[in-house]
């Protein structure tokens, strides 16, 4: 059995690791968000200058960066979830949503509750929000 101090130190270590993981993936999200914005701004300028072909090309590039940004956000959510929720923790009726943005947290929580309901093993579930 861990002492209070040991539990507190372990929680702090996990929190720091979660933050590192979040920042690592967030850099990719931010990069694509910035590039998306730049492409859309250039697209607007090209359109205003009458170059519709260039505007379309830049708009398509912006959309692709938007897609890549969303893909990076999903990878971030998956990595954070897997780090905070080893399979033994989930099977014991506990889910930890720390670090997840709302839409990903809601999706994971709904799946967790539905899976538990289908399995019928858990009378209580512990949902840790972040």
Structural write-up:
The chain has 2 domains: 1-84; 85-129, no CATH class. It is built from 4 helices and 2 strands, in the order αααβαβ. It has helices at residues 4-48, 52-84, 87-91, 102-119, and strands spanning 94-96, 126-128.
Show the helix and strand layout.
Layout: H1 4-48, H2 52-84, H3 87-91, E1 94-96, H4 102-119, E2 126-128
Parallel strand pairs: 1-2
Helix pairs in contact: 1-2
Task: Give the oligomeric state.
Answer: single chain
| Order of SSEs | HHHEHE
For the residues shown, what is the average pLDDT? 94
- Main β-sheet: number of strands, strand sense, barrel status? 2 strands, parallel
Strand-residue proportion: under 5%
Report how far apart the termini are: 25 Å
* Structure summary, number of beta strands: 2
Residue share in helix: over 70%
Figure out the total of helices.
4
Q: Order of strands across the biggest sheet?
A: 1-2
Q: What's the Cα radius of gyration? A: 21 Å
Shape: elongated
- Unreliable stretches, pLDDT < 50, 5 or more residues? none
Pfam family, one: DUF1771
Domain Smr: 95-130
Protein name: Smr domain-containing protein
Organism: Coccolithus braarudii
